[in-house]
Design goal:
Layout: H1 3-44, H2 63-79
Length: 81
């Protein structure tokens, strides 16, 4: 085998190994963060997402505002067709 071909294979394996290690660490860190956040959310006893119809203080949003936003979205979707 020529030295140039050998160097090319070394470079290919080094690059692919680096990418594999980086992506593996990225996946593991994402999983750890997900576990930590789910544990902290359940220990707080409150939900992050309060849903539609409630603002950040838990008070209800004006129904006229919801109707206006819904009408604007509907109008926008029909104008694209």
């Amino acid at each position: 085998m020529s030295p140039l071909f050998s160097q090319a294979l070394d470079l290919v394996f080094y690059g692919m190994g680096t990418v594999f290690v980086f992506l593996s660490v990225l996946v593991l860190m994402t999983m750890v963060m997900s576990i930590l956040l789910s544990n902290s959310e359940s220990s707080n006893g409150r939900l992050v997402n309060q849903g539609i119809g409630a603002d950040s203080e838990g008070q209800s949003v004006d129904p006229k505002l919801i109707a206006a936003i819904s009408a604007a979205v509907k109008r926008h979707r029909h104008s694209k067709q």
